[in-house]
């Protein structure tokens, strides 16, 4: 009798476990999550134009050229006091705001002459998406030059670095 009670109890226990398993499977749900992240911002700060703003009579401003990241000009002067000014336009065509991180203008040392003088105007410290700014580079044949200089060329190299604001 004891053996029969044990068998019945064991059978009921197994039946209860089976019912609980079916019940769990019926009320259990697996949830799946799939996600994708995509960066859609764009960074596009570039030079979009360079023009001659003014030049002294008799000077040759050449044909300035530019790419997205560089501007080139070649000025020729005839007499002391001559000046040529170039305007360089920078535009933020991306969707991220840009702030000015570094500006470095360096005159070439090997052509050490005070006969040619470079001057630049201030560059915008913040360039919001879709905005543009410009600055000027002026080159002057020093009016205080009294004789023909031995060195007649001088190069200016500039780096303008914008970073994400």
Give an account of the 3D structure:
With 165 residues, the chain is an alpha+beta fold. The chain has a single domain, classed as Immunoglobulin-like. The protein is built from 1 helix and 9 strands. It has one helix spanning 2-27, and strands spanning 45-55, 65-66, 71-72, 83-92, 98-107, 116-120, 126-127, 132-141, 156-164. The strands form 3 sheets. Strands 1-4-8-6 form a 4-stranded antiparallel sheet, with no helix packed on it. The chain has a 3-stranded antiparallel sheet with strand order 7-5-9, with no helix packed on it.
CATH class type: Mainly Beta
> Tell me about the biggest sheet?
4 strands, antiparallel
Architecture (CATH level 2) name: Sandwich
Shape: rod-shaped
Spatial order of the strands forming the largest sheet: 1-4-8-6
Structural class estimated from helices and strands: alpha+beta
Overall average pLDDT: 89
Written as H for each helix and E for each strand, in order along the chain, the element string is HEEEEEEEEE
- How many domain units? 1
**What would you report as the Rg, rounded to the nearest angstrom?**
37 Å
Percent strand: 35-45%
- Count of individual beta strands: 9
Low-pLDDT sequence parts: none
Distance N terminus to C terminus? 86 Å
Number of helices: 1
Approximately how much helix is present in the residues?
A: 10-25%
